Design the sequence.
């Protein structure tokens, strides 16, 4: 059974950093596509960063140069390093997984989701 458990969220001031983690189990982590999504109150869920089993990365324009997605296949863990955080980054952050994804920022492409971790950035 696929399980994804996020951690690392919290409250920081603008300009600060956080590192999110997503511990995965129940499937062949190293080969699956992984992604981070976020959802702010009253807004749709949006893709933030994605990484293929081969390590190819994608980012939404609003986080390029500030966020870095990575994966440790030995630990079955996905990470999101977030630097230079802005108040508009405030949201619940979710990790998502699927064997193959052609459009990494479409949430409907992912069958498996974690419970989310809250990130709050104050100005």
Sequence:
């Amino acid at each position: 059974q696929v399980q994804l458990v996020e951690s690392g969220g919290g409250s920081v001031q603008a300009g600060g950093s956080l590192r999110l983690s997503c511990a995965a189990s129940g499937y062949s982590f190293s080969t699956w596509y992984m992604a981070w999504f976020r959802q702010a109150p009253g807004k749709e869920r949006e893709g933030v960063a994605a990484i293929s089993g081969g390590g190819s990365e994608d980012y939404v324009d609003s986080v390029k140069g500030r966020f870095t997605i990575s994966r440790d296949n030995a630990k079955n863990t996905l990470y999101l390093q977030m630097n230079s955080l802005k108040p508009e980054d405030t949201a619940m952050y979710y990790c998502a997984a699927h064997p193959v994804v052609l459009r990494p920022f479409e949430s409907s492409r992912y069958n498996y989701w974690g419970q989310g971790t809250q990130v709050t950035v104050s100005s």
Notes: The two ends are 40 Å apart (CA to CA). The mean pLDDT is 96. Residues 101 and 109 are 6 Å apart (CA to CA).
